[in-house]
Amino acid sequence: METMRVYSKTELSFEIISRKWMCFIVHTLANGPKRFAEISAAIPNISNRVLTERIKELEDLEIINRNVIPHRPVRIEYSLTEKGKALSDVLNEVGKWAGKWM
Amino acid sequence: METMRVYSKTELSFEIISRKWMCFIVHTLANGPKRFAEISAAIPNISNRVLTERIKELEDLEIINRNVIPHRPVRIEYSLTEKGKALSDVLNEVGKWAGKWM
C-alpha cells in the first residue's frame, strides 16, 4: 500500500514536470499560441490521445489557456498563461543546464 | 511507427527530468550524500526496484556519484556530481515557481 504523505509544493511541481511530454508541450507553446495539430507536429512521438490528456491537465492546472477564435470554421488555439510562461522560463534554465552539461 | 527525430539537448534534458522520480532523487541528494535506504525513506512511494534503476541511470548520466566507503561493513553512498548540483539548482527554480504559482 502506497504510504500517503502530503507532497510539498516543490514535489508537486516535480510530479507535474515528470508527466511525460508536459515539458515538451510547455516548451512548444513558449513562442506563441498553437493549434492542436501544430503542437502534435512539434512533438512527433506523442499520440493524439496522450496530447489531448496532457492539454486537459495543463488547462486544469491553469498553465495553458484554450482560446476559441470565432472564425468559420471555429479555430481553437492553446497558449501559455502567466503561470505557464513562468514555468516556461524555468524550463529554459533546464535547457541552459543541458546546453552546458549534455 | 515512432518518427525518429534527433532530440535537441533541451529535449533530452526534458526526457531525463520527466523520468518518474528523477527530480525527487536529485532533490533529495541536494543536501548531501545519502545511502540507498535514506533516499528510499525520503521518497516513500518509490519501489526499491525503480530506485535502483533510477540510481543506475543517474550514475550513467554522471549526475550522481557512487561512493564506496571502506568501513567494516563497506558503506555505499550516493552524492551529486558538479553536473548534478547544477541540475539541483535548476530544480530549485522549479520549486520557487511552485511556491509562487501552486
From TrEMBL, chains A, B:
GO terms for molecular function: DNA binding. InterPro entries: HTH_HxlR, WH-like_DNA-bd_sf, WH_DNA-bd_sf. Residues 8-102 form the HTH hxlR-type domain. The keyword Transcription regulation applies. Keywords: DNA-binding, Transcription, Transcription regulation. This is DNA-binding HxlR family transcriptional regulator. It comes from Priestia iocasae.
